[in-house]
C-alpha cells in the first residue's frame, strides 16, 4: 500500500511532468528530465556505503573562517545559462554563496551559446567577491552536427511529440544535452581547472556547508559526486544501451575493472536498468571526461546520432560514463548537501540535518522512494 508521502511525491511528479509537456517551447532548452514511467522496483536494502562514514573534523571550519587547512582545490563553479535565465541564476547563486561559497571563494564560469548581456554580468558579479568569467560556446559545440540526417531526425522528433515525450520536439534541448555530454569540459575557460561544480538556475541549496567538497574529491580521489539518482525515460533512449554494449565490445581495455556496472545494470551489462545520477547537480573531476575512455565513448555515441535521432540526455550518458570509467568507490554521494531541483529533493537526515542548519523538511526526502536509485548505489558496497 502506498504511503501518503509517496503518494504526494508521485502526484507532484506527474503534475510537473504534464506541465512541462504542455508549456515547453522549442526555444527553451530546459533542464534535466523528471520522473520516468517506472516499471522496475529498487532492489536490496541499504548497507553502510562509504558516504556514511563520518567526515574527519579536520575538514570542518568555524563560522566566518577560511578553510582550516588553508588550501583549496583547483576548481570552479559552472553554470550553463541564457540571458533570460537571469532571475533563476540569481536565486541559485545567492543560495550557493550564502550556504558555501562566500566562505570558500571559488570562481564562477558562466557559459552561453549567445553573448551575455551587460545587465546579466552586472547583477551576477554583484552577488559574489569571487572571480567570475563569462564564456561564449563555440558554434560547432552547440549546433546539430552536419553528419545528422535531418529527415530522419525530424521524423523522430515528430513521433516523440505524438507520444508526448518531454522535450521530444526540441532541437535546442538536444543541443544542450549533447553539449553537456561532450563539450562543456572542452571550453577554453575550463581548461585551467581540474574540478567543477555544476549549478543550474532555479535550484535550492538547503544547508550550510562548513567544509570544502572539492577537497573531499581531491583527497579521496573521487571522480564524480551526486545528490539525486533516479530512472530515465525509456522512450528517450531506446538504443542507447545497445550502443554502449557495442562500444564495450570494441574497447574492453578502456573499461575500469572495478567499475560501477552494478548501479546501471542488474544482469552484468546485458541490459540497462535506466538508473542515472541527476546531472543538474554534479561535483566532478574533469579528468574523468578528458580521459581516453570517456573521450572515445562520447565520440562513439555522437557518431551514432542518438542525441538527435532519439533524445539521449547528458544524465544517462554521464552516469554510464562514470560507471564504466571510474572505480565504484570514486563515485560519491554528497549526503550532507541539501538540494532541490523540481520536483525532487535530497534533504539530509539526522546529525547532518542539524549540523547544516537545513531548512528543508526532513520527511520530504527522495533518497529511498521507490523510483529513486540510491538503493542500487548502496548495494554496490554490500
TrEMBL record:
Give the signal peptide, or none: 1-23
Which is one GO molecular function term here? alpha-1,2-mannosyltransferase activity
Asked if the keyword Iron belongs to this entry, the reply reads no
- Which InterPro entries does this one have? Glyco_trans_15, Nucleotide-diphossugar_trans
Entry's Gene Ontology BP terms: cell wall mannoprotein biosynthetic process; protein N-linked glycosylation
Give the active-site positions.
Answer: 282
Which family does the UniProt entry place this protein in?
Belongs to the glycosyltransferase 15 family.
Q: What is this protein called?
A: Glycosyltransferase family 15 protein
* Lineage start: Eukaryota, Fungi, Dikarya, Basidiomycota, Agaricomycotina
